[in-house]
Amino acid sequence: MQIRGGSSKGVYFHRGDLPQDMGLREQVLLAAMAGVDARDPRQIDGLGGAHPLTSKVAVVGPSLRDDADIDYLFVQVVVGEGRVDITPNCGNILAGVGPYALERGLVAAADTETLVRVHMENTGKLCELTMQTPQGRVTYAGDARIDGVPGTAAPIICNFLDVAGSVCGALLPTGNVLDTIDSIAVTCIDNGMPVVVVRAESLGVTGYETVETLNGDDPFKQRLESLRLQAGAMMGLGDVSRQVIPKVTLIAAPQCGGDVCTRSFIPHVCHSAIGVLGAVSVGTACVLPGSVAQDMLQNRARNGGRLSLEHPSGECSVELTLDGPPDAPQVGKAGVLRTARLISRGEVFIPE
Ligand code: NQM
């Protein structure tokens, strides 16, 4: 099935429909998304959309764990490079996993709302998805709006349970709330997604630029990549030159009534919105005393609650439940509203 999950779009496969051999499975996924030439940046011969947000795959199956209903592996098909990356998770594609599980009969729908417990295989963490299922059927129509997606749709509530250190093993993988790289202050954080948070002004930009302006600024992107490569090593991720994590998010004072303004790089292209788990990580940085983002909140939402992150096409709200003392808060749960839509279902033909 092709499903829009949040502000991303992906091809969702049943685990049992794919080859069991991992190497062969990778070849099949690359061919499905890009066709004969997996390095074609236009992905003209496959289902991929020639952009990181539309070159995504979900592999879904019944969970092998007792505490989950569904296993979900996220696969980023790296555009133009003929390879996949399974190190990151994707909270947008995750939103489509609930409808997929219901459509494929992997989970039975309850009468009005259905909760699906998803084991996110990339990180080993859990997320509870709550979907609208009137009369026991998944519905896509509704009045929830998420920025970065036109129109409205049925809400899907994603409640991430304990995602701190999901990839790097610790919320603050360098051991510090603040580090300095190339004389620039950064906060390296992993609350579901490894992200390097940096003040836009310290990189010589405002943080209010358009996606196109930032994408077209090659010298700026080189500085960003130098920062990212060093941060990746400091976060224990080794040489990240061929990995899509960590991401980098620029922050600036809010302009439209939110709590912080963001521009996120995934990692070489500026996101037209912000990734879900990326937003959870950046939101968490905002509530951590001593971080580069600590004075963004101007005392609002310091104790958790709803935090609004402005991004190039609107805003994304995350709901943080904080535990622990105010000077050393820990995020217990992080909730995000998403929507999804089934676009198509069928067969994909793999070139011989
Ligand atoms: O951070 C973009 C997206 C994502 C990932 C990316 C995501 C997340 O917008 O959880 O959703 O960071 O590549 O789909």
Automatic annotation (TrEMBL):
Keywords for this protein: Isomerase
Broad enzyme group: isomerase
InterPro entries in alphabetical order: OMA_tautomer-like (IPR047687), PrpF-like (IPR007400)
One Pfam family it belongs to: PrpF
Coiled-coil intervals, chain numbering: none
GO molecular function: isomerase activity
The enzyme's E.C. designation: 5.3.2.8
Keyword Cell membrane: no
Family in the record: Belongs to the PrpF family.
Record protein name field: 4-oxalomesaconate tautomerase
UniProt organism field: Exilibacterium tricleocarpae
